[in-house]
Sequence to fold (82 residues):
Amino acid sequence: MDSLSIFQTLVRHASHVLTDVDANLITRDSSLVELGANSMERSEILLNALEEMDISIPVVSLFGPKNLGELSDKIEGMVNLD
Fold:
């Protein structure tokens, strides 16, 4: 699984949860907070995306990235360690 595929999955789930956000305007520099996601929505987006990608990592280990690009890269790095 590469960073671009992970990013696209995150965007798909973000646009599903955040119905007022146009998926075409979400970039790797976008953050879920800037897009208007509260903490519950951010968790839902992450959990659903990880489930779709069949990735089993603790959500708490994903704290730190400032935007979706960094988050995608971090997930890719964690998956490729296995």
Observations:
- Residues 3-17 form the longest helix (15 residues).
- The radius of gyration is 11 Å.
- Residues 35 and 45 are 12 Å apart (CA to CA).
